[in-house]
């Protein structure tokens, strides 16, 4: 049905490594691979296997769960998008980073990755990580502009006064830095 790869961390892993909860849900216990270092795994590549036909209105949704926290949606794949590299932004574990114990078996609750078959229309976006990277990039560029403007502005009461051509000057400087240093723009990427 599907497989996953943790880039630079694993070989392809098929569905048999996951525990099947029911017909449409699978769980991967991260203790199997990395124990408490689950938060060092920052990406997952999920892909549909050849020959598997997922209905056009369905998707395989990927969720992550830190110890003691609820599942968090990361992204999905569908027939139209049969593979994806998703960013794993692990939520903070409940209990200040310490593993919680379950009352039933007193075993530590570990981080998990969940995969489920869901209606495509109910999912917010197939790649949540891409959206957060775009938001982060916009914030960093805006911060760069604000810092540049601060060096040229005056204050009139509660207002900042800036020269009329400030955006043109900032953009020209931004372009010059990017041309001189190819790694400059990488500083804006998550």
In total, the number of domains comes to 2
Q: Give the second-level CATH assignment, the architecture of the largest domain.
A: Sandwich
Radius of gyration (Å): 22 Å
Q: How helix-rich are the residues, as a percent range? A: 10-25%
Q: What's the CATH first level of the largest domain?
A: Mainly Beta
Number of E strands: 11
Reported for the largest beta sheet, the result is: 5 strands, antiparallel
Q: How would you state the average pLDDT, rounded?
A: 80
Shape call:
elongated
Low-confidence stretches: 96-108
- Helical run tally: 2
* Sequence of strands across the biggest β-sheet: 3-4-9-6-7
N-C termini distance: 31 Å
- Which class do the helix and strand fractions yield? alpha+beta
Domain Hikeshi-like C-terminal: 135-186
Domain Hikeshi-like N-terminal: 18-120
GO molecular function: nuclear import signal receptor activity
Pfam family, one: Hikeshi-like_C
